[in-house]
Amino acid sequence: MILTVATSPFDDQKPGTSGLRKKVPHFKQPHYAENFLQSIFDVAERDAGATLVIGGDGRFFNREVIQIAIRMAAANGFGRVVVGQDGILSTPAASNLIRKRKAAGGIVLSASHNPGGPDGDFGIKYNIANGGPAPEAITEATYQRSRALAEYRISDAPAPDLSILGETMIEAMVVEVVDPVADYAELMQTLFDFDKIAAMIAGGFRLEFDAMHAVTGPYGKAIIEGLLGAPAGTVVNGIPLEDFGGGHPDPNAVYAADLIAKLMDEDGPDFGAASDGDGDRNLIVGKGIVVSPSDSLAILAANAHLAPGYAKGIAGIARSMPTSQAADRVAAKRGLPLFETPTGWKFFGNLLDAGKVTICGEESAGTGSDHVREKDGLWAVLLWLNVVAERGESVKAIVESHWSEFGRTFYQRHDYEEIDSKAAAGLIGSLRDRLASMSGQRFGTLVVSEADDFSYKDPIDGSISTGQGVRILFSGGSRIVYRLSGTGTKGATLRVYIERYEPDSTRHNVAPQEALAELIDTADVIGEIKKRTGRSEPDVIT
Ligand code: VG1
Ligand code: CO
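That is the input. Now the predicted structure with cobalt (II) ion docked in place:
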């Protein structure tokens, strides 16, 4: 029976950079998840009997919310729900299934790289029919709907057992439980030269993939150990755990320190990689070198044609605004269009749909292509392996030759986490107030050439997004960008993005910390970080 349940609205269900993220206890409030899901269903466009894809990264509370989402989908006119076995789907695999099954959309349950567990984070994100995150117009409409919601609809029947593959019914809706890996693995085989990569591995190329006890464990095992024949044990931390083993499933120098240490050892593997909670981010480590995500985007864009799926070349590149301009140099040299978008994958969807770009990326360890409409961690790992196999060079040699051809863009992101929200707003507000007078000001050897608050007009649908980050540009091309995170669940997180271009290859062999020293000091002077937040050091440098 379909029940209509009276509820009262919450005022804090505004989706951030990537869906609605809150602490688990917050999500556990009565009606909280139901209200947000009903707001999505009320706003989402679909025909009667449409298909909905549902899956999550397996974190704590995933199972409960999946059951609720299925019972609510059955009460909201969907004809079919396609759900990963045990409720598991990586974010890129969900995107692929939405596209492949011509679904009206999908519900992705994840808080990505944020920690999980009973006191950890949880999240709900809605993806549209192209497989990508809902654009701002839809997330805003969902938010407005949530502020006025008076009731939600739900079936009183229990959701089916999600451990069994196959079809069952709930009300008039089919629930189809699918293998979460199969369709994704098939897609990867259409893009990359699996025989060539497998031959390289069989020839003694050693690799390690750290799934960080998150969703990519089963994907990594099936693809890297299964299809590519890497020895058992190549995938480490491969069993998804509800609390990620107490870790932080964020593939960066802090949380993937073990993997990086192995790759810095002469006797260690040749190639290391890691992904995040929901499988859309990637970290690439070569022997003796950690590849910065912005460099990785540029290098993949420059070499994608070496993989069969991109042999015809790429149409263009898009990067989020704070991502370094390394990709711009590839685009300029190859005569490709380059688009600069606000942070968050939802801004790439229209460009990909219109065929304007093939490869997209963000400095936050996200890269992807037009094969789905999300960033894709394992895709990036496989493209790197394909490029390495094709070029027959080490990761380090590939990165260094890229720098010598295009110049090196030194880059760092400094994160100040859980700072006081008012202090954070004050810092950004003060920067905005000073923008008009900034141009021409001198800081040490640096002269400000331009300063603005980034806004973006989508070239396809004309929508405008303002207030996307304060940019201070210096003559010579160096930049400092300040923005507040839209994915945190406690206090505010200030992100400061710092970059400097160095064309002279005799000066490439310097640590970023050193190459960026003057800019790092200047970031504090201009941003008044110490003064306003009381922090003298960032919590994380990526
Ligand atoms: C962060 C990253 C952004 C990314 C977003 C979602 O957002 O900076 O590049 O798209 O996370 O990624 P913010 O607003 O905290 O800076 V994921 O892997 O968390 O879905
Ligand atoms: Co993620």
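The first helix runs from residue 24 to 27.
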